[in-house]
Design brief:
By secondary structure, the protein is of the alpha/beta class. It is built from seven helices and five strands. The two termini are about 25 Å apart. The model has no long low-confidence stretch (mean pLDDT about 90).
């Protein structure tokens, strides 16, 4: 894989350790000398985004705010969300990358159907993090393996879900010649 050797500053719109680690794992493959700057910024959406669109909007707001606050070359926003589907309530995650010159990229690290007993509580207005804290008996589970990690017995921890999303969101910045081409 080709690497971009120019050191860059990457602002991360979160102080969540799982999200920061996801960015570190993805970004440093492309830019080993990148400076990562985690920042606490708002998403402008509910604590538990209830649609994919709301999750995407939150990720975009975080990416823009972080990039601007750090005067970074690239801003990354990461946002978990839920979305109703015919199969049940899906847990999804969204990543937006925004460059200094205004280019944007949206990606997802995947999604899966939550157990109905968890979905019922979320539909009633609860946030996933506290639900998982109660189920797992651990505090701040969303800053660790998260719902995905717990429900898959560690096969797919939260960091991996977001790492995939970050990597996919970087594609237009790693292969700009292909994304700039118009049909």
């Amino acid at each position: 894989m080709d690497r971009c050797e120019t050191p860059i500053r990457v602002a991360i719109g979160s102080m969540n350790p799982a999200k920061i680690e996801a960015v570190r794992l993805a970004v440093l493959v492309a830019w080993p000398e990148a400076e990562l700057i985690p920042l606490s910024v708002g998403s402008g959406v509910r604590e538990m985004p209830m649609t994919d669109r709301e999750g995407q909007s939150g990720a975009l707001a975080r990416a823009l705010a972080a990039r601007q606050a750090a005067d970074a070359d690239l801003g990354l926003g990461l946002e978990g969300a839920v979305n109703e589907s015919p199969e049940g309530l899906m847990l999804t995650n969204w990543v937006v990358a925004v460059s200094r010159d205004g280019r944007k990229s949206l990606a997802s690290g995947g999604g899966f159907v939550l157990p109905e007993l968890i979905a019922r509580e979320i539909r009633a207005g609860a946030e996933l993090g506290p639900i998982m804290d109660r189920i797992t008996g651990r505090a701040d589970s969303k800053q660790q393996q998260g719902a995905a990690g717990y429900l898959t017995r560690g096969v797919v921890p939260r960091t991996l879900c977001f790492q995939v999303g970050v990597g996919l969101a970087l594609a237009p910045f790693l292969r700009p010649e292909l994304y700039a081409a118009r049909p």
